[in-house]
């Protein structure tokens, strides 16, 4: 983890929404919308890493893609270094793409199968005018591959000749090629085997230290996020339900969903027991096409004080401590008081 | 690679021989006596018998088959009944005309089809997409001889005689009557003008198929993660579509090349007849009507060999466009 600078955050997200209209079969049917992201707000301070966790389909990836304007949000604002990214003209957008990069989840499908690794990396350099000539581009591609601990001769390989871990390293190299300030990692290790996963996480941590990157690290697995994040945001059905410094989330989680998620996570260090071990969740995530009324989590909530109010009131993400925010009407005390 | 090509060619030999055998028996067992077509009425029966002997028609079918096969394997396709000329010379004369027409149509079909498919995929479910889909389906469903006649009607007859358009295209033949009197550049233009209508009517059906196929393939590729990667790199949309998406989408389209060659060649039979284009297709039709057995058989063989070679070429092209495919 890298030193976090105070002051103006690099990224400021306010009320982000992304709804996907579903195609209905017939004109007289009601058009339904899938609320993938339904009002998400957070800041990314310069140099910090925010972990974003949640079950599949909770809107993590859509949030990440909206952050880079790879999908157009339905509503809400995203400011990058003080500029609204939705208002960027093509030229400014290209400069923005140079400052904000993403590593995708699936290293098998996120590389163009017809392009050699070196060509794909050089293309980024060309587009952003990073390297002056072909010789410098080759030199830079070499250095990039070294940086992600890959042999230089792999530049002449096609993606199908590489292993999953090697491909994900190429994906990281591609993202780093333009020396971005913001790096979004969208489940970068979910598709990898466990030993490879640890290597890649180690690499990510080294790179964070080396470049002072601001990162949004997305995972569905809390144990992955714990190692690399300064703060952690937990998402459920398109909303953030808890946002707190990583140590707080992992030792004294407050939201019933976070507690349940943590209880379901196998821990690497068995010695460290947390008092957070709660009941295991039952049932499935409700469909984001027709989310439950009130608190979206109430049908599955194991909280002992759950009542009719939960079914009626939509809880806002409220500050319950200095750096700690929870969206649950039943949580009132600060985490420090609770421990 | 060379080993693979040699093996494919060797494997094609029995196929071509099989085609030759089937064509031989179909032609020879069909009703009709060639000799009767080539004699004047009222000739003495002895003379008729002489003609039959000259054509080799007095011998039993199996003997004719063995003789024909033996000669063919030595490169001798016999003599055309109707043209009194070695069949090989006839084909050498006429084959280039068909190749010119087919390859023009092929380039036209794939060029236009791919472009339309890309536009449709990029604007999926828009009005443009729908209109192009309906158009493709229309041309895909129309019989080519009818399309050819409509093109003649509009772009040749009405364009020149009724509407007086400045541009119209000739409806038949490869060159104008006064072709020999033109300058070199005019001769090229004259040939190109004659090529337009037959090539377009041959290409339309294929282009419609290619467009449908490209659209589907593009839609699949556009959804891939590496296209999102390309956008995240900050590439201009044009580069994303044509460099990253289209090149990958073309991989399955290349297989169409092999599939469409037989369609293309059987198309020339109809189109060349409609446009009086002196090619293999018209030669085949004429020869069948004239019971010109040697030419029909040789022509069918030439088509078979072209399809086999075309398929081999499509497979090799497949390896060239997709780095994941290697032939050993």
Describe this structure in words.
The complex is a heterodimer of chains A (339) and B (328). Chain A is of the alpha/beta class and 339 residues long. Chain A is 30% helix and 20% strand. Chain A has a single domain, classed as P-loop containing nucleotide triphosphate hydrolases (Rossmann fold). Chain A has helices at 60-67, 90-99, 117-127, 134-147, 164-176, 194-211, 222-226, 246-251, 256-263, 308-312, 335-338, and strands spanning 11-21, 33-44, 49-53, 75-80, 83-84, 100-103, 182-186, 214-219, 231-236, 239-245, 318-319, 325-326. In chain A, strands 6-7-8-3-9-10-12-11 form an 8-stranded mixed β-sheet. In chain A, strand 9 (231-236) and strand 10 form a beta hairpin. Chain B has helices at 2-29, 34-37, 45-55, 61-73, 87-122, 127-141, 144-162, 184-222, 225-232, 237-274, 280-289, 293-321. The longest helix of chain B has 39 residues, at 184-222. The radius of gyration of chain B is 24 Å and the shape is globular. The model of chain B has no long low-confidence stretch (mean pLDDT 87). The chains are: A alpha/beta (339), B mainly alpha (328). Chain A binds chain B through residues 65, 68, 70, 93-94, 97-98, 101-102, 104-106, 109-115, 123-124, 127-128, 158, 160, 171, 174-175, 178, and chain B through 224-226, 228-236, 239, 244, 247-248, 321-324.
